[in-house]
Amino acid sequence: MPKETNRRTVIKNIIAGTAALTTTPMLSFANSSDEKQNITLKGNINHAVCKWTYGFMSLEELCVLSKKIGIKAIDLVGPKEWDILKKHGIDSSMCNGAEINLVDGFAEPNFHEKLIQNYTEMIPIVAKAGYKNLICFSGNRRGMDDETGLNNAAKGLKKLIALAEKHKVTLVMELLNSKINHKDYFADKTAWGVELCKRVGSENFKLLYDIYHMQVDEGDVIHTIRDSHPYIAHYHTAGVPGRNEIDENQELNYPAIMKAIVATGFKGYVAQEFIPKKEDKIASLYQAVKICDV
């Protein structure tokens, strides 16, 4: 089947509500043998999905699918598309649009002027829209040692914290691996991020703990979550190795990880950020929600 025809067929099925989908929290989900299984969301995990990993769909289409699955929010959507989320009653769980990019971040003072300008403009916009989280990045190391990067990042972030506190917006720095995906990225260890949180000294600066990235760079995921959870505002998922589906073909025990997250009292979002490689990418998202719904 031609690629575009296949896409149209998939989207048509979503909108029409085929494959036994409903608009309630009751899910119908096709596993690898294409058998239908009904599951009921338990309500312990607030499910989200990252927009970019389902980029073969429009945001409108992803909203419709999310509502059918029981996903409450979509990550990494900027102001120009928030009206689409609001139309469908979908939250913006991690806003973006103030960052320069992944490599030019708060660890490098040369970027502070631009970053402070961007975030000073964006924080009130996020608050006015009724959202809470705004992503930020350390950027690359560029030969700096840990202490220098910590001091630089804390200095830049402290210039924004009063504004973030005023508007009840949390700046959330993502932890990314520097081993495979983001060479030279500074915030590649949880301990470094936690120390930065302590130096900034505000509940309005926390971490995005990406489970995939931290498994690649440091492992010990459950122990780290238990120890560091006061400094974590958000979670991302993906399978290791490969950053694909979180099924039985990868090494992480996601139900155990989700139980550990729930045990900390976490009330934020867990967003699926795997890159689906199976033919039925929509079934992969159902499966991910089912696996994580503990």
TrEMBL record:
Residues 84-275 form the Xylose isomerase-like TIM barrel domain. Keywords: Isomerase. GO terms for molecular function: isomerase activity. The keyword Metal-binding does not apply. InterPro entries: Sugar_Epim/Isomerase, Xyl_isomerase-like_sf, Xyl_isomerase-like_TIM-brl. This is TIM barrel protein. It comes from Pedobacter puniceum.
